[in-house]
Amino acid sequence: MTGLSLPALDGRSPLGFLAALGVLRLVVEHTGHPARLAFSRQDCTAVLHNAHPDIDTLVEDLAAVVASIPDGGVLSQVAVDFPPPGTSPDKLRLTRKEFTAYARQVTAADGLAAERWLGVLVTDLSTDDKGRIDISPYAAPSGQQSTRTMLTKPLIEVRKNPIPLREALVAWRRYPGISGEYLDHRVLFNKADAADGKSAERGVPGATWLALMAYPLLRTTAAGGEPMSTCWQDLGDRAGRRMVYPLWSSPLDIPAVQAVLSHPVLAGVSTGAAPAAATLLSIFWIGHAARRRIPKRDFAGVLVPVNNPTRPLAPVRRGRGRAAAR
């Protein structure tokens, strides 16, 4: 069993972890390779097994997936108008009755592919204060962002050329004006952070697109009246809702990855070294991440790695040089 190292996909970063899952799904579902995913015990980076001999051929196949998305669309294997086009208000945020009708319509047209996307993007098991179905905690819409635009913006960048896809796998480069869909807290740059002295969000478009492509491997339900997706847990009053996820060393296929991500051995586990019971699954490290609010902005915030299992997050600091982007 051969393994291809993906050195830029560090599983200790939520974005790197999700992007690795995205690579696995795209390779298995679009190339026919019986790929398996593991993480290095030495540096926690992703290793893809049973697939490509080198980065070049992997990037070619990922670029082919991008090319398969029809003009006017944002996803492969579904209609061009899924999710519904438009900015905020998000046309996927429907009442339960409206959503039932919409879900029947799109699954009749696009089958399992649409069902899997709907099953992670939204849930009708809980609603917001306007009676609309809830969105996944993986989403943090800001301003006029909608589910559609969340999927559109990274796609635009990887459609231009395959360079951001290669960079996502081997060495991240940050591009101005890329929000990273707030899966990456390091997008926040103020004037003191930026070499050009300009305040702008700087994201990694290739890694962001790959992370979004992982979503059909996940599911969104609800717990205690709040939406809860695969890997997310409510750790109580002090810690709140967090993404709790494992890194494992044995190469796993998609069904095995999904089983590990939802395994009860992860309930309430702390960050760092895996508990003894989890090591039986080849899990060697546990990561926590949570949303951190940004002062003067009204949205859920950026997804930040958390080292302390119980300490609540402090707000993001502004105007403090590079510390503000860490």
Written description of the protein model:
With about 325 residues, the protein is α+β, with helices and mostly antiparallel strands. About 30% of the residues lie in helices and about 20% in strands. The strands form 5 sheets. Strands 10, 11, 12, 13 and 14 form a 5-stranded antiparallel sheet that branches. Strands 1-3-2 form a 3-stranded antiparallel sheet. The protein has a two-stranded antiparallel ribbon with strand order 4-5. Helix 2 (about 55-70) crosses helix 6 (about 165-170). The two termini are about 35 Å apart.
Overview in brief:
The protein has 326 residues and is an alpha+beta fold. Helix content is 30%, strand content 20%.
Considering the chains and any ligands shown, give keywords for the structure.
five-stranded antiparallel beta sheet, 14 strands
Which secondary structure elements does this structure contain, and how are they paired or packed?
Layout: E1 3-10, H1 14-31, E2 36-39, E3 45-49, H2 55-68, H3 96-110, H4 112-121, E4 122-127, E5 133-135, H5 147-160, H6 163-170, E6 175-176, E7 202-203, H7 205-212, E8 220-223, E9 226-229, E10 232-234, E11 241-248, H8 254-261, E12 272-273, H9 276-279, E13 283-292, E14 302-306
The major sheet is characterized as: 5 strands, antiparallel
Low-confidence stretches: 315-326
Helix content: 25-40%
Beta strand %: 15-25%
Shape category: globular
Distance between the termini: 37 Å
| Rg over C-alpha atoms, rounded to the nearest angstrom | 19 Å
Number of strands: 14
Structural class of the helix and strand makeup?
alpha+beta
Mean pLDDT: 89
Following the backbone from N to C, one meets helices and strands in this order, namely EHEEHHHEEHHEEHEEEEHEHEE
The total count of helices amounts to 9
